[in-house]
Amino acid sequence: MMLNKAELSRYLFVFLRHGESIGNAEARFQGQADFPLTETGLAQARALAHRWQAEGESFDLIFSSPLTRARQTAEILAEAISTPLELDPIWMERDNGEMSGLTREEAREKFPQPDFLNPYDSFAKNGEGDWALFLRAGHALHDLLQRPPGRYLVVSHGGLLNKVMLAILGITPQANNQGPSFFFENTAFARLEYLPQRHRWRFMKLNDREHWKIPDAE
Question: Is 18 a catalytic residue?
C-alpha cells in the first residue's frame, strides 16, 4: 500500500557546530581537550538563540557533546527555546591522540605530514583515524534513528559532523584526505530531513550562519 505525503513520518535534524572556543582562537588542535567558549563564541550562541526565538524554532530534544565548548553552546540554546538537553559522549570531537591541545606550529614539528595517509591508521599515534571516526559517526547516526520520528538538534564538532554527513551520503573515508568534505563554521549548522519509509534524505541547509548578522540579544 502506498503512503501519501501526509502519512509519512519524518525526522528533522539540525547538526550544529559549537561556538568559538579558546582553542579555536589560539589555533589549537582541540580534539577532546576541553576548552570553554570565548566571549565571541558566547555571543554567537546567543545570536543563534535570538534568531531561533524570532523564527519560532522548536525541537523535541537537544543532544550535545559533553565537551565544554559544545555543552555551553547547547545550554544557551536549550534555555532560550525551552528544550530538554541530553549529553552524550558519542558526539565528542575526534580523539586526536598526542596532538590534542597542540598549536598548529607544535603539531607540525611533532607530527610532520607523511607522504601517504591511510584512513585506517591511527591519528597522531594513538588517536582516532579517519575510518574509526567514520564508524563512530555512523553509530551516532544510527542511535539517532532509533529515536521516534521528531525534531532533533545535535550540538557537536566539525570533525565528527563532517563524518556524519559522509555517513548519510554513504561515502567512506579516502586515502590522503581525498573526496568531499563539509565545512561547519562556529555555530553554523546543517538542516536535513529524513523519511524512513523511503530512506530519503533531504539536505535543506548547509553551513547556515545567518545569525552572525544579528546583534547579541542580551
Answer: yes
pLDDT of 145-184, one tens digit each?
999 999 999 999 999 999 999 999 999 999 999 999 999 9
In 42-188 the beta strands, taken as DSSP E runs, fall at 61-64, 85-87, 151-156
- Told to judge if 93 belongs to the known catalytic residues of this protein, a careful annotator would answer yes
- Among residues 20, 93, 128, 211, which one is catalytic? 93
Superfamily of domain 16-151+167-213: Phosphoglycerate mutase-like (3.40.50.1240)
pLDDT tens sequence across 63-113? 999 999 999 999 999 999 999 999 999 999 999 999 999 999 999 999 998
> Which residues contact residue 112 at a Cβ distance below 8 angstroms, ignoring those fewer than 6 apart?
none
